What we know:
Helix content is 41%, strand content 17%. It has helices spanning 3-15, 86-102, 153-168, 179-189, 199-210, 215-223, 240-253, 265-272, 278-283, 291-302, 314-331, and strands at 23-33, 40-51, 56-62, 67-69, 75-77, 80-82, 113-119, 144-145, 258-262, 286-290.
Amino acid sequence: MDPERLVEQRVREALAPREPQPRIYAKVRWVGPARPGAAGRNGESDVVVVDPERGWLLAIEVKGGLVGRDGLGRWYAGERHLAESPFEQAETGARVLARTIEEEPAWVGSSPRAIHAVAFPSVDASSVGRGHGGLGPDAPIALILDRADLATAAATSTALDRIEAFWSGDGSRDRPFTPEQVQLIDDVLACQVALRPLLAGDIEAGERELVSPTAHQLTLLRTLRTARRASIVGSAGSGKTLLAAEKARQLATDGYNTLLVCFNQPLAKALADDPALQPLEASGRLTVSTFHELCRRLGAQAGVLPSEPANPKPQVWWDDVLPRALLDASSA
């Protein structure tokens, strides 16, 4: 059996009787700095165990075949030189994953405790002579799941108890996870999500398209350039607004004080936010307004706009009072 698959299976079997049930994740890929301020890097934690009762995240690094290190501290898997110690790999993965979880906006409480261990399914840790310094001070044998530890689920359970005792001590540092924290960890480590376009983006794209004239419409405008008055008729979506916006741009660019009026507020905002029109608005050559805002502004300037009642009848105010104020202002 594949070494990583064996370790995952034995850990699942060993932890299955426990309550609350620990969460187990295999081959968890991660991207992030090994420590704050360091450069980002890629990595993978072979087996990750989240223990709700103790409040820690255990990352296990698996190395199959023969494993060893030389007198210079360099590690090998068979004849292959390892860029870093399996213990360091496991520790880095645990820290990156715990930090990633803690940085989630929905996370509440102290950070998950990050601990680590290694699994060497093809070798026996007892083959290392204790009198020769073991594997070194940075590689405690107590944190190794070896061939004997992985022979049966019962042996793996005993080995995990040993690893837990190593990190927990008297248990004073244990902080159980809440159900909400466990769920958030699961959402991060077993992420299931579908990216989709947001309505705000669709509206923005539609607004940009709304004020982007086509080549045919620009040709039509060129033919009307010398006409001082024109009436453009068409169904919804036929491009009347595009023609009006482009004609307003041309007039304002030629130095005319230009007023571009439309009926509803969203369309007025789209026109006002159009990059081709914004510089002309800033210069004062172009004014974009809704019809009713124009009625309100000119009626107020001419002193013919009555005060808006506290509880106006909407249709009367918009359909009669404001248009009448514009008409009165034009003749004032």
